[in-house]
Design brief:
The protein has about 110 residues and is mostly helical. The protein has one domain. The chain contains five helices and no strands. The longest helix has 26 residues, at about 40-65.
């Protein structure tokens, strides 16, 4: 049960932090200038496609491995802590392509593991 909660928590934390990072990139026409460089739109769209997949996987794996009240409590706490993970990132990472690329790599790792 603890291992299932931990696995859910790590995946959900990545979803919450990724959500707050991507919210700063929407709408696409008004995203930061650093992410408007070539490839920036593709990174945003790829992250937007993979983020719901990871959220669904995290919820499914969490509900299979642990009771739902624990999942609800952990999900709420991690949703509240998501912005605190994004804010300390350097401005170039938070508003540019390096942060989007890192998020894409982390999403892919979390989906295949």
């Amino acid at each position: 049960m603890i291992a299932g909660l931990l696995e859910f928590g790590l995946r959900w934390l990545l979803c919450c932090a990724g959500l707050f990072l991507l919210l700063g990139m929407l709408p696409l026409a008004s995203r930061p200038a650093a992410s408007r460089l070539p490839g920036g739109s593709a990174l945003v769209i790829a992250d937007l496609v993979l983020l719901p997949l990871l959220a669904a996987l995290a919820l499914w794996r969490g509900l299979v491995a642990a009771p739902w009240p624990g999942i609800v409590v952990i999900a709420g706490l991690l949703l509240l802590s998501g912005p605190f993970l994004v804010q300390p990132l350097p401005h170039g990472w938070r508003d540019g392509r390096p942060g989007l690329a890192l998020l894409l790599v982390l999403l892919l790792i979390a989906l295949v593991s």
